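Consider a concrete sample entry:
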Amino acid sequence: MSDDADDERRTKLVKAGVAVGVGSAAIVAALLYASKVKKPKRGSNAS
């Protein structure tokens, strides 16, 4: 029984870790994209 519980806990931790990793990568990609898009248009749109 403890083996099943350990496997379930490990699976949940792995899924959580993957979700955090994917989320972090998405945030980094969004920030990089935003910084690339904003720089060329710095003077044309003052909002």
Notes: Residues 10 and 16 are 10 Å apart (CA to CA). DSSP finds one helix and no strands in the chain. The radius of gyration is 20 Å. The mean pLDDT is 84.
